[in-house]
Amino acid sequence: MKKILIIMLGLLVIVGGGRALLKVPSVQDKLLELGTNRIAKRGAEPLPESESLRVYVCGSASPLGMGQAQACIAVITPEHFFLIDSGAGSTDNISRMGLPMSQLDGLLLTHFHSDHIAEIYEVNLNSWVQGRPQPLTIYGPQGVDEITDAVNAGYRLDRIYRIGHHGEDLLPPALGLLEHKTIEPGVILEDGELKITAYMGEHPPIEPAVGYRVDYRGRSVVISGDSNVNDNTLKIVDGADLLLHDALSLPTASALANALGAAGQSRQSQIVTDVLDYHASTESLVELGEKSNVGMVAFYHLVPVPPTALLKDVFLRGAPDNFLITEDLMWFELPIDSDDIIVNRP
Description:
This protein is α/β, with parallel strands linked by helices. It has 2 domains: about 1-45, no CATH class; about 50-345, Metallo-beta-lactamase, Chain A (4-Layer Sandwich), CATH 3.60.15.10. The protein has helices at about 1-15, 20, 25-45, 90-95, 115, 120-130, 145-155, 155-165, 230-235, 250-260, 265-275, 280-290, 310-315; strands spanning about 55-60, 70-75, 80-85, 105-110, 135-140, 180, 185-190, 195-200, 210-215, 220-225, 240-250, 295-305, 325, 330-335, 340-345. The strands form 2 sheets. Strands 6-5-4-3-2-1-14-15 form an 8-stranded mixed sheet. Strand 2 and strand 3 (about 80-85) form a beta hairpin. Helix 10 (about 250-260) packs antiparallel against helix 11. The longest helix is centred in the first third of the chain and has 20 residues, at about 25-45. The radius of gyration is 22 Å and the shape is globular. InterPro entries: AtsA-like_MBL-fold, Metallo-B-lactamas, RibonucZ/Hydroxyglut_hydro. Keywords: Hydrolase.
């Protein structure tokens, strides 16, 4: 009956007579009921169970790009859920993908540029509201305490308002406060068959900047954050199944800088020019792939985001078949006891 009603309303809209019908309160109420029921059921559906290591692209963009969220990667095993970075727009993508925020174990920061930390509190609030049972820990290199304390202080009143409105039973005050843990290069966490290793990146003048390798039951993924390719990169990707690395298209970024300068936008041109020396060029990543035995390389934190097929081809110029460009809502499945990497596109 519900499907029939929707089809009838759709036909009425198509032939033009439905516009008046859609202004009838009883029809509006019925459509609201159908729509909200669908949203509620979708929200109640758990993430499908899997024994695999799964990696989700919550944000694929750099500040040089519109239409995609900024840097954020989710790594999920049957027992664990970690986020790496939390750029602007990424929390909405987490919700769209139906990731289990009530089970979030921690947020790992690669460094403290705004496009990697913009939604720390949104992640905290979202997981707190959904029933996360322990305080959210923010992991990061030296300086993570300053970032965490600032977020806690800046949103103190927000927490007070929400606890006052919804009550301490629903929102326990202690779970609204972020905790922090300063990490050094090396193994930072081991839990069962999960191991997370931090390595030093190269993102001057930011120091330290780190990336992370996650190993789980023989499968592995490396997430770079922002970094040029260096010796540490080559070592950490050894034997990895999947590498998600920030990537800069030198032909595209150079052309953009020149065009901005020619158009009299000297400040913007200088900004783009400055970016060229502290992100990994696609050429350097192709070379990395040739020197290592990494299974697949996926470009993310794209500089700049390629909005057309032509610019995507420029990004992948010279890259072998095991290289690809990520986009928001893409995810990878790495089955256990297999070398397969299943790429799922939105």
